[in-house]
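Hey team,

Filing this mostly as a record. A colleague (T.K.) asked me to run one chain through the structure pipeline before their review meeting, and I want the input and output archived in the tracker in case anyone asks later how it was produced. No errors, nothing strange. Just documentation.

Input sequence:
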Amino acid sequence: MDFFFNHPLGILILTVVKALALLVPLLIGVAYLTYAERKVLAAMQLRKGPNVVGPFGLFQPFADAIKMLMKETIVPTGANRLLFLFAPMLTFMLAMLAWAVIPVNDGWAIADINVGILYLFAISSLGVYGVIIAGWASNSKYAFLGALRSAAQMVSYEVSMGFVIVTVLLCVGSLNLTEIVRAQQNVWFVIPLFPMFVIFFISTLAETNRAPFDLPEGESELVAGFFVEYSSMSFALFFLGEYANMILMSALTTILFLGGWLPPIDIAPFNWVPGPVWFVLKICFCLFVFIWVRATFPRYRYDQLMRLGWKVFLPFSLAWLVLTAAVLKLTGWLPA
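Output structure:
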């Protein structure tokens, strides 16, 4: 057995098994997130939501998937065919690749690398390329305008997200995601860093193009924006990528501020619940807030979106970063 785990082929097989053990539940979660969103929005608007396909409409995600698979993929005549089809695949692949470093429990990560947070930041930064390529390759003014909006939006909010992450890293002294969770044994970072938690969560809404920051796909002015020309499975891959990114950002929020797999209080019956269950419950709470925000707030104007990112979040997160560094230095808590 030791020979198997030390042999390159054995390591490869083990890595594939670990990846499938994470990605299969993730894809099922993405499918049922679409169902949950429709149900929660329906409840908030006093409607029923999906209730025909299967008991309580539980088979609706599979019906939608079959419908997408059966439809024809239409490529516009003036589009760049190769890039047009590559863009949704890139978006979906990046959404999956980011999960390689997410620890679901202590030691439960496909790759528990020491620069996990940098890896995540790099993957999230690459995500904008799928949108830009889709907008340009579609050869449509609406799609191109949506892509330009998305590029500016994602770059703007990644700056403040970066300062928030640096603030957390100052308190931990490590770029390892597992170490960040372990550092919250006594108190979750959401308590001492609550303003940064708020900024980070709102920035994740903008980063994932979710309401009220869904400007790149504004139906009222851009007729669905960067994926206006997409259909069938190419549209479904964008859809899956967006919802996988929502789950990813909720997982990152959980790791940075909500104690990851740690229970709220280390006493019975809280510590009887397995770590992965706490992790999933916290992700579900964050996803519920994503949907709640969509049902509650109207879409921002583009100038309001930019002003919030550059004139409010950026100076405030920078000031809080300096304040945190000063407090840690004066109290002697600053990690070496």
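Quick notes for T.K.: Residues 1-70 form one domain. The longest helix spans residues 8-44.
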